[in-house]
Design goal:
This protein is α/β, with parallel strands linked by helices and 338 residues long. The chain is built from eleven helices and 15 strands. The model has no long low-confidence stretch (mean pLDDT 94).
Length: 338
């Protein structure tokens, strides 16, 4: 590798700090600049990383700072606008999930990146979990034969304090819904494995929080490969996260990826294809103190992205593939039974 890839990060909350830490520790990356409207956060980061530039104005950073790629880690409702502005400034983009709040905004992002000769990447770090990689290999090699059904459960806890911590959470205009925040990575895996979501019949309610978005939902799904399935999601689990799982039922095998964060193989019965016995499952969640989120494998994703950009190859999810999970979210919400 001839040169380091220069990064900037906009939005320095929980997930932004995770990006900053990973970038600063990668030998093939250089953290150039960070941007946040909270001066306390940027001053703390300057103390920790004295060589970085700090900004409180995104447009000014795009104009004045010399970096190759921007990590967009702002609230969901800003992802599209900030990604488009970065593309017009000639910067590659790594945008956190969800890519955008709807498919029309996602398509604008894809178009602007293409028109300005830059690449648009979407964070899908759960693809690097060991249980996910093992299952992906089994599916790609057709070890399960014809897949009949899939069941996905996201049974997590988010206290009212979680929604009170940030003004954008719990609001349709700025967060979208639980599918955008807690379930986005799970839906990415489903459409990656089983194709575009073609049909959804949904019931969703707000039962336990004073918020605009839902906190409970169930949906019956059908994918364009013919696989049928169910999605059960909630942020109402008492006290702490219970389960994040995907169960696949096929002609020649059954697999359940479970744990709280898709970090364990709970069941593996595949014809003539036993689960390797020498694998250590060390995938851990992002720990934000008062709550935990999806896999912390941003280091694997960003390292792969760096090589991908410098070597001009494929690997990390890009815009058009990221669009599929946004379309799935829309399909599920549009399938709500009034």
């Amino acid at each position: 590798m001839k040169a380091k890839l220069k990064f900037a990060v906009v939005g320095c909350g929980h997930i932004g700090k995770r990006h900053i830490k990973v970038i600063s520790e990668d030998s093939n990356a250089e953290l150039i600049a960070v941007c946040d409207i909270n001066e306390n956060i940027t001053s703390q980061l300057k103390n920790k990383y004295p060589d970085i530039e700090i900004f409180d104005d995104y447009a000014h950073m795009l104009k004045m700072s010399d970096f190759d790629i921007i990590s967009v880690c702002t609230p969901h409702g800003l992802h599209s606008e900030m990604s488009i502005r970065a593309a017009r400034a000639g910067k590659h983009i790594l945008v956190e999930k969800p890519m955008a709040l709807d498919s029309s905004e996602s398509l604008k992002m894809i178009s602007e990146a293409k028109n300005n000769g830059v690449r648009l990447f979407v964070v899908k770090q759960n693809r690097y979990n060991k249980p996910i990689m093992l299952t992906s290999k089994a599916l790609s090699e057709k070890r399960l034969g014809k897949v009949f059904m899939v069941q996905c459960n996201v049974m997590w806890n988010r206290h009212n304090e979680y929604y009170a911590q940030s003004s954008w959470r719990g609001k349709k205009e700025t967060e979208g819904g639980v599918l955008h925040t807690q379930v986005s990575h799970f839906l990415d895996l489903l459409v990656w494995w089983f194709g575009e979501l073609k049909q959804a019949k949904t019931i969703a309610e707000t039962l336990n929080h004073q918020i605009e978005i839902e906190d409970c939902g169930v949906s019956a799904l059908k994918f364009d490969t013919g696989v049928i399935g169910s999605l059960f999601w909630t942020t109402c689990v008492y006290n702490y996260n219970y389960e994040g799982s995907i169960t696949i039922i096929g002609e020649k095998g059954t697999i359940k990826i479970g744990g709280k964060y898709l970090n364990e193989i709970e069941f593996w019965d595949v014809q003539s294809y036993p689960l390797p016995t020498d694998i250590e499952f060390e995938d851990t969640p992002n720990n934000y103190g008062s709550y935990q989120g999806s896999s912390s494998n941003h280091d694997k994703l960003i390292n792969e992205l760096i090589h991908q950009v410098i070597q001009d190859r494929k690997g990390v999810v890009e815009g058009e593939e990221g669009l599929l999970s946004i379309k799935a979210i829309e399909k599920i919400y549009n399938g709500i039974d009034e």
